[in-house]
Each structure stands twice: as C-alpha cells, then as structure tokens.
Amino acid sequence: MRVTIVVLLLVHYALSLNNGLVRTPPMGWLAWERYRCNTNCAQFPDDCIGEKLFMRMADRLVSDGWRDVGYEYVNIDDCWPSRERDANGRLVGNSTRFPSGIKALADYVHSKGLKLGIYSDCGKLTCGGYIASGGNEKIDAETFAAWGVDMLKYDGCYSNETSRKVNYPLMGAELNKTGRPIVYSCSWPAYEGGLPPKVNYTELNAICNLWRNYGDIQDSWDDVVDIMNWWGDNQDVLIPAAGPGGWNDPDMLIGGDYTLSLDQTKTQFGMWAMLAAPLFMSNDLSKLEPDIKTVLQNRDVIAVNQDVLGVQGRRFIKQDSIQVFSKPLDKGEFAVAAFSTRTDGTPHAIKFSLNDLKISGAKFYSLFDLFESKHLGKYSTAEELDIYVDPNGISMFRASPISVENIFVEEVFETII
Amino acid sequence: MRVTIVVLLLVHYALSLNNGLVRTPPMGWLAWERYRCNTNCAQFPDDCIGEKLFMRMADRLVSDGWRDVGYEYVNIDDCWPSRERDANGRLVGNSTRFPSGIKALADYVHSKGLKLGIYSDCGKLTCGGYIASGGNEKIDAETFAAWGVDMLKYDGCYSNETSRKVNYPLMGAELNKTGRPIVYSCSWPAYEGGLPPKVNYTELNAICNLWRNYGDIQDSWDDVVDIMNWWGDNQDVLIPAAGPGGWNDPDMLIGGDYTLSLDQTKTQFGMWAMLAAPLFMSNDLSKLEPDIKTVLQNRDVIAVNQDVLGVQGRRFIKQDSIQVFSKPLDKGEFAVAAFSTRTDGTPHAIKFSLNDLKISGAKFYSLFDLFESKHLGKYSTAEELDIYVDPNGISMFRASPISVENIFVEEVFETII
Q: Which residue ranges does the record assign to the Alpha galactosidase A C-terminal domain (chains A, B) (predicted)?
C-alpha cells in the first residue's frame, strides 16, 4: 500500500504543472458562493462586488487571524469587469465598483501580506455575461500579470468541448509566458462531467494547478453531502489525479453562511481537509459566529490539509449513513475522519479498526482527536475503535505511529509513577 | 374574510374538547427527537431517558428563563416504563432510570412551577416495545392522574385503524373521568395520513387537545421544509381544524440540535408560531448557543403563537422558493412571515402588498419586524413591500392597523418636530 502511494506521488510529480506553486492546497477566500453577482451597490454598499468588499475581506483575513493560519488568497469571481475593453483592448474593472482599478487593489492586498486572485472565462463571455478571455488569452494574461494578480480562476461558460481543449491549455501557456507566478484554477473538468474518458487528469495536471471537478457548491448541506458522496464514489479516479502542485477542487467552504449548522460546518471543513482540497471560504468574515471561526481556524485540521505528501484521503467504510476516510500523512502518520449523514437525534456508534482503513507501518498508533483537542489513547491496528458521531457531525483524529520501544518506555514510566 | 374567520372560530369552539385546557398552544420541552430511546445510562449518564434528564431540563427551563417566556411542560416520551406492570396491574417507571418514581418526578417538576407530561400508546406496546395502555386505559389514566401528570402524548404503534377508532376516544374519556386536567395529545391522525376522509377533524376536536397530523420530525432541515410544505398544501383542511383547545401539531422544535443553522432555526420557530403550533423544544438546554436561545425565547414571536384568537396562518404566496403566510391576530392585527428555501448565497427580494395576503380592516398598517426588533414604517394595504429574505431564512413582522385619525395625528406630529 505504502509503495503504491509513493509511486503514484512520483508519477504525479513528474506530470504536474511545473510552475512551483501550491505544493500544498491553496487557502483563502473567494467571493462567489456568498456574494454571487451582486452589483447593486446602492442597496448593498458593503456586499456588492467591488473593491470595498475585497479590501474589507483582506482587512479581516489579517485582523482576525486567518492569514496566520494559512488563508492567503483574496479572490475575485465573476462580474468584476467593465462591459467594454479599453482603447488598447485590455480588460478593465467596472469603474463604479472598482474605481481605483485592479492594480491598486492588488497593491492593497499585497501590502497586507496576502495575494489577489481574479476570474475570467475561456469563452467570449463569463457566466454572468461579462467580457471574458476567449480569443484574448495573451493580452489578458499580460494584463493580469501587470496588475500583480497571483491566481486565475478560469471558467467555462460560452465554450464547447472543442474550444475548451484549445483554450484551457492556451491560457495556461500565456500565464506561464508572463513570467509572473500565477496559480491557474481550471473549471474545465466540471464542464466535461469530471470523469475519464472525457477528462484526462494526466493532461490536466500538466496544465492547471487546481481544477473544479464537479458542479458549483450551493449554500446547502444536501449539496455538501452530494459532493462528498461523489468524491468517495469516484475516488479511484480522483486520488491519483491529485498531489503537490495539482489539486482536485470540490469548491468553496460555506461555513459561516446561512444554512450550515456548527456540526455541518465541522464536517465540511474536516472532509475538505481529508480530501486535500483547496480551502477557499466564501462567507462574510465580519459576521462569523465565534464558534464557526474557531472551527475554520483549527490548526490541527489545517495541518491535515496542508500535509506535504499531498495525498487525497480514501473512503474505506460506508455503512449506516456513516462514512470513514483515512489520509496518509508525512512521517507515517494518518488522518482519520468519520462523518454522519444521519438525522436521528443522538450520536451514533461506529466500530472499526485501523486495519480496516489499511493503516499500517507500525503496530501501535497514538490517536489525537482534532476537533475535541484531546488524546484518545494508543491502539493496536487490530483493536476495535468505538467512535460516536453526531448527526451530520464528524469525528476526526490523527494517528501517529508508536515504535515498540516507545510503548515499552511509556509503560515502564506509567508503572513507576 | 373577517366574518368567515369568526364563524370558523365559533364552530371550532363549539366542537372542541371542553376540558378548558390549552386555550393557546402548549409550550414546553419533549424528550423524543433529541434523546430517542437512549437507555444506556452507563455510557450516557446525563442523556439517558431517566429522571435525571427530566430534572436537569426542568432546572434549565427555570434557570435560563424559558418558563418566564411560556415554556411550562416537561414531557417524557417513549422508553420510560418498566418491562412489567406492578402487582396491582399498574404501570411503573423503569426502576434503574426512574428510581424515585414518576410521582416524585411530577412533584419535583411542580415545585419548579412547571408541568409534567408522559407518554403511552393505544396499542399493547409503545413504538419502542415498552408496555402501553391498550386495554388498560382506565387504570393507566388513574395512575397518571394519581402521579400528578399534566399531559399525555398517546402514540399509535401496535394498533390498527379499527382499534384506534375505539382506543383514542376511550383514553380521552378515562382521562376526563379522573377529574385531573390532563392535556391529551393524540398521534391518531398521523397514523391515518392526516387528511379526510380517513381523519375526521370535527370528531378529533371533541376528543383531543392537540394531534400529530404528520410524520415524526427528524434532525434535518429537509424534514422541516417537508412539514411546512405539507402544512401549506393542506391548509384548507388544517386551518379550520385548529383553534383554542385543539391544535394541529407539526411536531417538535429542533433548534439547538445538530443540524439547523441559526437562520433555519429562526425559520422553523417563526413558522411554528405562524401555524399556531404547540412549541415543544427537543434539545439539550444546557448546550444551546446563546444566539439559538435568543431566537427560541423571542417574546414577540411567541406572542404571535400565543395570540388568543388561535387562528392558524395561511399561505398566500409560493414563488421563487419563497413562501409568504399571514395569521390573523387579536384586535385586527396580523402576523406575516416570508421564508425561503433558496440556497443561492445572497438574500433574495420578494415583493407583495398586504392586500395580496388578504389583510384588511384598516387602510394603513404599522409594521414591526419581529426578529430584527425594528419598526419598518407604515404601509397602505395596496403598497408594495420589498422584503429581502436570507437563504433558508425568514422575515417576519406584525402588522398593526392604524386608524386614519392616528395617521393624521402622526403626520402632524412629524411635521411639527
């Protein structure tokens, strides 16, 4: 098992986009799910798509400690451009909503120690009907680089299978030619159904740094569950596709929005960490409940996501509406998560051993609960764990190998004291 | 319209169970949804079905201000009895979990200024397989009365259509004969599909104080939505069935449990108030987030629920995944609620006038937002309201008639100051 993983990593490494970026999954904030195409600044001065919104979120990322735990990108989505290119054929931001221009916004974001992402589309128009980059890849890539943009989300509206095959690689090449390191996020596979043979993940890895495999997330637990199920059901395709520099993207974190409970927020966050997913929140950082903020800033969970191996977790158990995943980590450690889609009132027990999750390499592991921040004790790989999972909740722990010598020392020590 | 309502109220009054109880919808706490049949006190000493749980909740109802806003019942559900009747053929509580007996628990609850509810079934066994009252209606009613029980939820497992027709009225009669005022909650219509011709709401009104029309609620927003849709779809049957002394029961409030967000909690609570529903929370009162508690203790929303007219709200608008209900209140006032099942990220606008909700009686109404606690201004009944509703959220207000003289005075006053 371990040998297989190492081989897959090597294969991935050799083929992935070699711009040196996002060796661990990118983290930040992205406007779309929460703010959509709200351009009504008269009625929603704080929430419309404009420079004030992105500056406000940049301020929050710093002042509320998000940057310190790893969230570094502030990403614009659709509806930012003017309706016309400028006299030189360049994209420009809507002059009412981005009066200082995108370059000034990038400077502001950089001054905060953060990075700026922007959005365009491989067709003639964006999904929201704004001017897009199809046919203008070179000038737009140069414009983004000149502005100091650090990431591009490249959508696929107003395109077809044939045009996408040309235009996604083309924009990737133009971004590379600018010489500026720009993370390239491709919506391409989501437009092809996300699976081979229509999606060639080997090719995608050579072109993009991350890619949206599946539909847009909505503010809905049902949608979170649907995404997690799809990831589990298609893991034999998805796991080998991902690794340092190239990531499967199940879309944004919606914790802190309107519809997820605290438990559901933990579940999405924990599972996105298990899946080595990009962690882009889309919420109003100024309106988060303290307990939601605590969840989304959990350093132990983030460490699982940011593990240097970059291996996507695998589902080993799906029974009684509970699913159990494990994710190999550096230095022989593993992360384990059991999440529930049950609705029957009380925590539900699930029993499994580390062996059931193909966790091996040591005979004993020390387990640490990542949301409860407590040691669960040490277990042999054959020993049965009896885990209770809340309805729609998650139980998540880190398993660290214990050498036989260490166990002996520990036991002697316990005997002495 | 007003005339129709008055007539319906009179009809209802004449036919409803005349034990003088629950002239407004009952409020309290009920164990089932959150605690189910958890009898594992070794592993869950605080959460298993036993006297400690109910005493803990009684304590909380008092110490945390719930009693002061109207929550007065502490209700036991399934799995409380011993597996055998006693030597005199009487029900007894499980001796391990209710070591002091139900009478002592009733005394404790009463000493707190609260009331105790209990649970049985019209079949031989409860849904959880415990001893039930079918065939022992007289002795069990007398036992409940002797214990000082104030309410009985009477379930319908291990029964059939024929036996229910006999046993539900029979237990009602036996309760009445005890001379103790005991609120009688019948699950009967839920077992018949909730609709005529199988359910005769006129008869039900003469027998029961409240009745479960539909399936058990689960810890799930989808289930809350399903219930609200069923209530709206069948309102022409349900509205005339309900009124002082006899209530349609859409089942427990699940705010504070595992799966509802704050907005979803507001929506369920606000809509249960609009539907003149019994308000029984099923949650762990010692683990509620402060903002959830604030919602469930909102006095303005509770006042809508407890309005003396006891008229169930009616749905007038269902479009774009937003539904708008209005509920006639005493003194010519109305409550209005618009809730959303949308998941598209941002608040969504809906436009309607008070006329669209058949609100009449005055030309102008003053509107007060019940969750935001703010005045929205005065509107003519023809004027268009432009309401924004959060995804899965609710906007709810009280409309108070303004006489033309008052408007004149107000306007003069506004001119002067």
A: 310-393
